Structure of site-specific DNA-methyltransferase (adenine-specific):
Amino acid sequence: MDKLKMHSPDLSQDNIAKIRDLFPGCVTEAQDEATGAVRLAVDFDQLRQELSDHIVEGPQERYRLDWPGKREALVLANAPIAKTLRPCREESVDFDSSDNLYIEGDNLEALKVLQESFLGEVKLIYIDPPYNTGRDFIYDDDFSQDAKDYLGASGQTDDEGKRLVANTEANGRFHSDWLSMLYPRLHLAKNLLADDGVVFISIDDNEVDNLRKLGNAVFGEANFVATIVWQKVYAPKNSAKWFSEDHDFILVFAKNKESWFPNQLPRTDEMEARYKNLDDDPRGPWKAADMTARNAYDAGVYPVVSPSGRKIDGPPTGRYWAISEENFKKLDADNRIWWGKDGSNVPAVKKFLSEVSSGKTPQTLWFYGDVGHTQDAKKTLLKYVQFENTENVLNSVKPVELLQRIVQLATTPNKRDIVMDFFSGSAPTAHAVLAQNRVDGGNRRFIGVQIAEPLRIPETKMKTIFDMGRMRLVNVVNELKAEGEDVKGFRVLKVDTSNMKDVYYRPDELKQSDLLDMVDNVKEGRTAEDLLFQVLVDWGVDLTLPIRRETVQGKTVFFVDDNALIACFDRGITEDLVKELAGHEPLRVVFRDNGFVSDAVKINVTQIFRQLSPSTEVKAI
């Protein structure tokens, strides 16, 4: 019997629970000095770091995952950057109408740029990060700057530098560097997940233990869902020194475990074949299920008499009938007990096919016969990418069937769910989304991010792994279209420095001698479409919305999703053009700050929209 608390609510614990919802990694276990009981406690050092734009000192002993560089990695996650996404029509397929994105650039920067546009919108994230085997390349993130310096420096150069470095076992920070690389990316990825979203992460034995702890810190230990074991090879490696490593792991973390549940998998023909109708029961096929159980059950010991007259004193030794005698008699009267063909067997319960679930609960052991193996993955890659040098074929690519299984479990076909992979590689995740949409008629969308990592040997048609993934997707889309599928391609965007000149972000460094150069605050060589996408990013507008370009009164005007946003970056904008655009009653409108024909027109813009379209948000760049 539970006892009444006999005291007022423990508000501190309630508040800590609220903090845990916002910052799971900032709540840990601590021993109460007065009672000795273990209670939830706030890791104030970590919370200070979450809320700070510089590195906070002062570690204390506590239960948590820690490593050299953790604080710096968190500063990096929270620091702003002066970057944008530039559209690339020539590398896209169905640019104006596609709602898929394929992004070239550093995934940390891409995740930051996408924060506003896709906050809480992504249903599934799958990533296949470097396994840290000692032969992998990892991101060389810059921890030397605080947030202010990072904002300035990240926007001041077009030379990205060498972003990927080898992480060999000789490195004294072998595990720490890997954790510092992944931590800020998962931290930002969590923000993009919907409340009922989930992340699947592939890994092997080298870092599975650290990844589990890192995931607990980012998503909260209570939101860990499962560790899936995938049989990745179809034959043992006899050359292995100790054991043939036949599997990889896939760790699953939910944004909120109480809101996310996996879909059931379709029942297989083999499962259906187990149901027979040996007695021509009008309710259809059935299978016999054991009526006994191991767990002690007070009402589970009683004698039964079979239709042939055989008396059975009770269940086998050490087992119990799983149902009470009363329920047994009801089932027997309803012809739901099977006694065998001659009516003298130990009773079994008939389970009818028509009454079982239409699907099966997913298991944590995935065999290659169901979801493919690494050789399947390479064959698929070779089908869609025409390599000139076999040395460029990736060894770590995942089978499309494996990723289709994940997409199947974690998304709904007809809800336009977004599937994201920010370690996209050769784009098998995006391929899997297109393939699964074909299977079930779904309309899922994908966002893939891949840095321009050079191929081992440059080729004529591709220089980087990003190019490899793009070639694969182009050929997959073309194949689906040739087969009559209603499929739209993808919009290629590239992470780049801001379209705005440096003084736009650091006016304190402006010199009087620079004033003439700053008449226009947009960098040379940036197009109107470049400016449009920076506006979409800054305003947090969905980057996959359809875009229409029209000429209105001699000026180029962009209509995003008809009237979600209207943009005109031409010069010489007149009051008549402003009035015509206001007549569309857009949700948002944006102009170039120095694009108006006169200061009077610029001053009147807000008043015109206030009169003709009062709900429109008006801005200038």
User: Anything to note?
Assistant: The two ends are 67 Å apart (CA to CA).
